[in-house]
């Protein structure tokens, strides 16, 4: 984009905007699918809140997760928990 002459390539901009809009639509569809899976799991007796926590933990590096757990245990012990 050439800001000195205040021109914008409309076709190029439109292509980027349309790609982003398509991806946002796909993201919403995937989020709905994930929500449905949590609903199914809840319907069979699983706790979605705990499942989300497990997914969050599995996403972390194992070493970093262990380090955080050790700090959490240390803080809880300091609080007498």
Automatic annotation (TrEMBL):
Q: Per UniProt, which keywords does this protein have?
A: Coiled coil
Determine the domain of life of the protein's source. Bacteria
Q: Where in the sequence is the signal peptide annotated?
A: none
A Pfam family the protein falls into? GapR_DNA-bd
Q: Entry's NCBIfam families?
A: PRK13694.1
Q: Note the HAMAP family from the entry.
A: UPF0335 (MF_00797)
Q: What is this protein called?
A: UPF0335 protein CQW49_17415
Species this chain originates from: Methylosinus trichosporium (strain ATCC 35070 / NCIMB 11131 / UNIQEM 75 / OB3b)
